[in-house]
From TrEMBL:
This is Uncharacterized protein. It comes from Celeribacter marinus. Residues 1-25, 86-128 are annotated as: Disordered. Residues 13-25, 118-128 have a biased composition (Basic and acidic residues).
Length: 128
């Protein structure tokens, strides 16, 4: 089974200046490209961008909600165990495992009667 680890970083809030990049939208795209390429160089795959609310203090008593965008990345975790191709039946058919006999519980009237009698005796003892 493939397992992943995740990492989130704040999305860029300002555009990035670069040669030949003009306009605020192009600068913002340049900042995103740089962030994505930096994480990709470290082995992280871009997964998605999420906008999350966060409650922050805006004074002594008041709180406001601000929304932040994070970029979510993931990468595969190397397995610490090796998968075997052996069938499951072979592992579960051990000969030294104890075998339990089935218990027939169809006739429980005698046991139930004994339990009821014991409870009555206890109740009578407490009342006196």
């Amino acid at each position: 089974m493939t397992r992943f680890e995740y990492k989130s970083i704040p999305a860029p809030k300002k555009g990035e200046k670069a040669r030949g990049v003009k306009g605020s939208d192009a600068r913002m795209a340049q900042a995103m490209t740089t962030a994505l390429n930096d994480m990709g160089a470290q082995g992280w795959d871009y997964l998605r961008a999420d906008t999350l609310p966060m409650e922050e203090r805006s004074g002594i008593r008041s709180k406001t909600i601000h929304y932040y965008t994070v970029l979510v990345f993931r990468r595969e975790i190397e397995a610490t165990f090796e998968a075997t191709d052996a069938p499951v039946e072979a592992a579960s058919s051990q000969t030294d495992a104890p075998v339990l006999d089935a218990v027939d519980e169809t006739d429980t009237s005698e046991t139930d009667q004994t339990t009821r009698t014991s409870r009555r005796d206890l109740t009578a003892t407490r009342d006196h």
